[in-house]
Every structure is written in structure tokens, then in C-alpha cells.
Specification:
By secondary structure, the chain is an alpha/beta fold. The chain has two domains: 76 residues, no CATH class; 186 residues, Rossmann fold, CATH 3.40.50. The chain contains ten helices and eleven strands. Strand 2 and strand 3 form a beta hairpin. Helix 4 crosses helix 10 and helix 6 runs parallel beside helix 7. The protein is globular. Belongs to the APS kinase family. This is Adenylyl-sulfate kinase. Pathway: Sulfur metabolism; hydrogen sulfide biosynthesis; sulfite from sulfate: step 2/3. It is an enzyme of class 2 (transferase).
């Protein structure tokens, strides 16, 4: 070992060091005190607590303290947007498609994930690049720290909305499949994107139909009071008011369609709006 470096906050600390009986009192000019260390350094070096002097808080000159902090810029002052040399239109031209977000919302077991998979596969077969953000999948990683309380659900949707925006900016067709029960949260995600780039798909399936499926037994547990805050049981679901695509099932005014048919309906919308072109 060649030496010992001790870090101290300057200029408030002065140290007296006893090295082989000789005492020196020196200010820490550069914030470090460097000491020669011999093989028996631990035995020879003693930092004497009684010789360490601190400036009392009451003695600090307020104007001097202010001058020290005034030179430190606020964190937000150092955060600026860095423009890419490749713009969104360049990426979309490369992919021969336009980036957008397909936001599939509805009650649990309404078929969101099934339709998302069918849509992704159908677009892949057409040579289009997609990525699916599934509500359950995202909670395994990005949102694993969030609960199902109202405030955490809002944060869950906010994060997914921001990620979906990044995909759309790359030119990818991002499919977000999650309950997203609150209208204000979905509208907040819509506001992140240029007009028209947020395509809301409402899986309008009655609660009774969703409960009759219940492959995970979640509705049964919610009815028994073992799951609190379950959407549709003791927590509300706010249906979209003006969604772009809607799937109605067993409602008496529309016929049921398969996931593949529903995917084709969404693709027809994308074709009409020019999203499957460069």
C-alpha cells in the first residue's frame, strides 16, 4: 500500500494527525488528506476525535453560504431535449408504415389480449412491424413496483403511454392491451400523441359474459371479497365515449365476431387512415 487518502468536506473541517508523535494541523486544500502509509499503518496512524474542529452552524455566514449554492444550477436547467439526426418520417419510410398506438381497453376477460395477438399476427403477415404492451406482461418488469390502487393504476397507464409513444415515434405500430379503467388516464395517453395516432379499441363485452369466462377465477375471488378494487365489481370501469373501433358482443345490436375478424376490422381502419403505408 503506497498511501492513504482521506476525503473530507472543505472548508469546515481541520484535522490534527499524530504520526509517530509529531502533530501537524493543516487545512484540506483539495478535499483530500494524503498520508504515507507503512506496513504497520493501522498501529501508527491515529485520528484524534478531540482535535477535529467544526464550524458551528450559527457561525456560518448566510451570504457566503448562499454564494456557494447559487453557483449550482437546478437539475431541470440541465435537462434539454436532444434531437435525433433521423426523424420520424425517415423511420416510417424505411418501415413502409406509420407509427401509431392501438389502445385496446375493456373489462378483464373481455378478449383484449386475444385480439391483440390476432392483430399482431395479421399485421406481421402483411409485413408490418408491431410490438404489444400487455398489461400483465408489463407488470412483470417495468411496473412490477405498482399495486392496483387507484393512484398506482394511474401511474401504470402513464408509464405504458410513454413507452407506447416511443414505439410510435420509431414508426412501430404499438398495441397496448390492458384494462385501463379510467377515462382520464386513457385520454392523457391520447394527448401524448399527434392527433389521429391514438386508436382506441373498446372491447364492449358485458360484465355477465366476462364473469362467465373467468379463466383465472378472479371474478369469483372478487365476489367473495378476497380481491379488493377489482374492476367491474368494487371498482368502476369507465367506457370510452368516442372510441375509434368498437367490438360489441352479445348486446343485441351487433353480432359477435372472432378475434381474427376483430383484428381485420382494426386493420381496415388503419388502411383507411393510411397507417400501413410509408
Amino acid at each position: 500500500m503506497e498511501g492513504l487518502a482521506i476525503r473530507a468536506s472543505r472548508p469546515s473541517i481541520l484535522c490534527s494527525l499524530h504520526l509517530g508523535g509529531d502533530s501537524q494541523r493543516q487545512p484540506l486544500s483539495d478535499g483530500y488528506l494524503r498520508l504515507p502509509v507503512s506496513s504497520n499503518a493501522a498501529a501508527n496512524i491515529n485520528l484524534v476525535a478531540s482535535s477535529v474542529s467544526f464550524h458551528p452552524v450559527s457561525a456560518i455566514n448566510v451570504s457566503a453560504q448562499a454564494s456557494l449554492t447559487a453557483d449550482v444550477p437546478a437539475l431541470s436547467d440541465n435537462i434539454v431535449w436532444h434531437e435525433s439526426s433521423i426523424c420520424r418520417c425517415d423511420r416510417q419510410q424505411l418501415l413502409q408504415q406509420k407509427g401509431c398506438v392501438i389502445w385496446i381497453t375493456g373489462l378483464s376477460t373481455s378478449g383484449k389480449s386475444t385480439v391483440a395477438c390476432a392483430l399482431s399476427k395479421a399485421l406481421f403477415e402483411r409485413g408490418k412491424l408491431t410490438y404489444t404492451l400487455d398489461g400483465d406482461n408489463v407488470r412483470h418488469g417495468l411496473n412490477r413496483d405498482l399495486t392496483f390502487k387507484a393512484e398506482d393504476r394511474t401511474e401504470n397507464i402513464r408509464r405504458i403511454g410513454e413507452v407506447a409513444k416511443l414505439f410510435a415515434n420509431v414508426g412501430v405500430i404499438c398495441i397496448a392491451s390492458l384494462i385501463s379503467p379510467y377515462r382520464r388516464d386513457r385520454d392523457a395517453c391520447r394527448s401524448l400523441l399527434p392527433e389521429g395516432d391514438f386508436v382506441e379499441v373498446f372491447m364492449d363485452v358485458p360484465l355477465s359474459v366476462c364473469e362467465s369466462r373467468d379463466p383465472k377465477g378472479l371474478y369469483r375471488l372478487a365476489r367473495a371479497g378476497k380481491i379488493k378494487g377489482f374492476t367491474g365489481i368494487d371498482d368502476p370501469y369507465e367506457a370510452p365515449l368516442n372510441c375509434e373501433v368498437r367490438r360489441a358482443e352479445h348486446t343485441g345490436h351487433d353480432v359477435s365476431c372472432s378475434p381474427r375478424q376483430m383484428a381485420e376490422n382494426i386493420i381496415s381502419y388503419l388502411l383507411d387512415k393510411g397507417y400501413l403505408e410509408g
